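pasting for the record
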Amino acid sequence: MAEKKKQFAVIGLGRFGGSVCKELYRMGHQVLAIDNNDTKVNEFASHSTHAVIANATDEKSLQSLGIRNFEYVIVAIGDDIQSSILTTLVLKEMEVENVWVKAQNVYHHKVLDKIGADRIIHPEQDMGIRIAQHIVSEKIVDYIELSDEYSIVELLGTRKIHNSTLIDLDVRAKFGCTILAIKRGEDINVSPMPDDTIYEKDILIVIGHKADLKRFEEEGM
């Protein structure tokens, strides 16, 4: 069954917002690109479904764009923290269901949290964590922090676990982690079965407590 296409609005077409906009559009989703800079809007006309010049802090402007119809609105306004906060506030007052906001710092984060942002993103910090995790371990392909305690990691299968089944590894009992999927080249096995075999160079997508994941990486792999 084909993946359901979603509707996104991206407000702020700087480096972060622009990359989000381009990737969502490349994936085939409907993307409304919004910025108050006409040069940026012109630049993204070919990387979005619609690109418009608008002041996102103005409720009437957002209403005229039908912003409430979008499943997700990403507020990626750059250095203007006041505009970011006002835009988020307007969107939540308009009852937009999912408002994701880029935060500049911890104080910005606190205000966004108080006014009801559904998810707060720290691109530089998040990327920094992922690069640090990747650089200290050749086994870690990617790393997503879910909370202070839990993460999802992509671990590269080693010779040690080559030709083992999930039953053989018994990861949940031994380490308290769960293997969500196995990637092999372009193929991905979601919810693998206990007797599925893992080979060297397979990528294991594993969720768990950070300490348990670290133990599995060091002892189980």
